[in-house]
Amino acid sequence: MVSNSTLHEKTVLISGGSRGIGLAIAKRLAEDGANVVLLAKTAEPHPKLPGTVYTAAEEIREAGGKALPVVGDVREEADVQAAVDAAVQEFGGIDIVINNASAINLEPADQIDMKRYDLMHDINVRGTFLLTRTALPHLKKSADPRILSLSPPLNMSQKWLGAAPSYMMAKYSMSLAALGIGAQYQIPATCLWPKTTIQTAAVQYALGGSEMYERSRTPEVYSDSAHAVLTAEPTTYAGRTMLCEDVLEDAGVTDFAKYSPGIDPNELEKDIFVD
């Protein structure tokens, strides 16, 4: 199911990407020699979290790709347009848009502050819609355009509808934005989500602490599956929401221990929205 194509000299525009899953994906694509444009807010180091958009760009170059860091906010039209324009000026076009930037808040509907609700929807939904639509003129010109959203399957079971409605709405809408634009303009769009939680700062500091972090898979399960999606034949995953592990199995991966070394598979933390 995987083609022989690589991402050499293809231009990827990704929201976020200064650390965590976004950076892991960017570096994996860079191994093919991709051009990676990072739109992120982290111009200065965070007091607790490593990495800026500039250090991420250096890591991408070290991995074998070209990198263009752009400081900006995915919620702001001017910033997104500036990133698109910079990508086109530097690399001549855009082939792939990856909607990575996301915010999470799992507070119950009767407790979440509406400012936090708005922030989550502005980043996840508006950001995904805005980045994708702004890049559309250039995606249409690409010989192999793709849209990838790091968002979940639309699992409509009562369990997940009621788990965290404000977050569910934001993440499901993120999937719908990517799939909807892809369908309207016949651009292959895929949503990708892991079966387990991933070792990120959000998991360690905002969700389950060190215990959940230790029971999570490494970001490479996401980056390897994203690479598989983006190098598959265009119709393979077009219009689909996929789990990372299923994509990797399609690609022939049988050993997932490398993504969670030393951890009993039965002890892994299942991700939200995954039955």
Could you characterize the architecture of this molecule?
With 275 residues, the chain is α/β, with parallel strands linked by helices. It has one domain (11-267): Rossmann fold. It contains 10 helices and 7 strands. The chain has helices at 20-30, 53-63, 77-91, 114-139, 158-161, 165-185, 201-207, 209-214, 220-231, 244-250; strands at residues 11-15, 35-40, 66-71, 96-99, 146-149, 189-193, 240-243. The protein has a 7-stranded parallel sheet, sandwiched between helices. α2 links the parallel β2 (35-40) and β3. α1 runs parallel beside α2 (53-63). It is globular and about 45 Å long. The two termini are 25 Å apart.
Topology diagram in text:
Elements: E1 11-15, H1 20-30, E2 35-40, H2 53-63, E3 66-71, H3 77-91, E4 96-99, H4 114-139, E5 146-149, H5 158-161, H6 165-185, E6 189-193, H7 201-207, H8 209-214, H9 220-231, E7 240-243, H10 244-250
Parallel strand pairs: 1-2, 1-4, 2-3, 4-5, 5-6, 6-7
Helix pairs in contact: 1-2, 1-9, 3-4, 4-6, 9-10
The CATH superfamily is identified as NAD(P)-binding Rossmann-like Domain
Mean pLDDT: 94
What is the domain tally? 1
Q: Strand order within the widest sheet? A: 3-2-1-4-5-6-7
Biggest β-sheet, characterized? 7 strands, parallel
CATH class label: Alpha Beta
Strand content: 5-15%
- Tell me, briefly, the overall form: globular
Radius of gyration: 17 Å
**Overall helicity:** 40-55%
What is the total tally of β strands? 7
Concise overview:
This protein has 275 residues and is an alpha/beta fold.
